[in-house]
Design goal:
Length: 285
């Protein structure tokens, strides 16, 4: 069985020789739950038989929504953005941070109350120390979350596992990975909090990022001057609270639209195991 099946349009699996080499394996798939119609079509192209594919959606939408709903209203992490309008930058890499910090410097000239929380993808000591030096070189007060101080402009998250909750402390979010070669990280986590999301130009392979952009719940930086783009978007959302809220609502709506995939997937599998469903229907083939 294949759960949450997806094949991006540019995948090498669709081309020779991978398509030929992998086809027998995909033909052996008993049951496939695809996340969208396009993915179902591409799964069929690489060998999964038509009668064995159903579109069930992406269970990650249910997962992030449940995680956000489980956060207590008095969770201390939600207070990390209490001192001023905060952008939470999650899963960042050095390429992202070289855009965020100078953009934040421009934002602070107009909005001294603005704050930035950075949760690096790899919060090891060398990375954190380098971030601290870069912020101080720009004259930005910086501290780590384990030793946070009042009046800090830049707060560095120095432990793992808390980012999904920390997004709730922000009025807006930046998701890393789409400026360098790493690939964009999850945009669903901040979207589930109902805040608008911004990311780098290399988001093309992310279906979720595309859905957010189409709905107006996100913005993407350009390649020519990402620092200027970041500062402009950031200030725009700070200065126009109505627009920011509307974009955040659209981001949450994208997540809400995807809910139910976990149940559909479970029912699909249960039906097959009970010998009643797509597996049974396909036996005539």
């Amino acid at each position: 069985m294949l759960v949450a099946g997806t094949v991006r349009s540019g995948s090498s699996r669709l081309r020779w020789p991978a398509r030929t080499l992998l086809r027998p394996g995909y033909q052996a798939v008993t049951l496939a739950g695809a996340i969208a119609d396009d993915d179902a079509g591409r799964l069929e192209r690489i060998g999964v038989r038509h009668g064995r594919i159903e579109v069930t959606g992406d269970p990650r939408y249910d997962s992030v929504a449940e995680r956000v709903a489980a956060v207590a209203a008095d969770d201390p992490l939600l207070q990390l953005g209490a001192e001023g309008p905060t952008l939470v930058a999650g899963s960042t890499w050095p390429e992202d941070e070289r855009v965020l910090l100078p953009a934040f410097l421009r934002v602070r000239r107009e909005r001294p109350d603005a704050r930035l929380i950075i949760a690096p993808h790899e919060p090891h000591e060398q990375h954190l120390a380098g971030l601290e030096r870069a912020a101080m070189d720009l004259g930005l007060p910086v501290a780590r979350s384990s030793t946070t101080q009042d009046g800090t402009a830049v707060l560095l998250i120095d432990r793992v596992g808390i980012l999904p909750t920390v997004y709730g402390a922000g009025r807006m979010a930046y998701v890393g990975g789409a400026i360098g070669s790493q690939g964009i990280h999850s945009v669903l986590e901040p979207a589930a909090w109902g805040i608008p999301v911004v990311f780098g130009p290399g988001w093309d392979y992310s279906r979720d990022a595309g859905l957010l952009l189409e709905a107006g719940g996100a913005a993407a930086l350009g390649r020519q001057d990402p620092v200027a783009d970041m500062a402009e978007i950031w200030l725009g959302w700070l200065e126009n609270d109505e627009t920011r809220r509307a974009r955040g609502s659209e981001a949450r709506r994208v997540v809400s639209t995807g809910l139910g995939a976990a149940e559909r997937t479970a029912l699909l599998i249960a039906g097959a195991l009970l010998d009643d469903g797509p597996l049974d229907r396909d036996r005539s083939r």
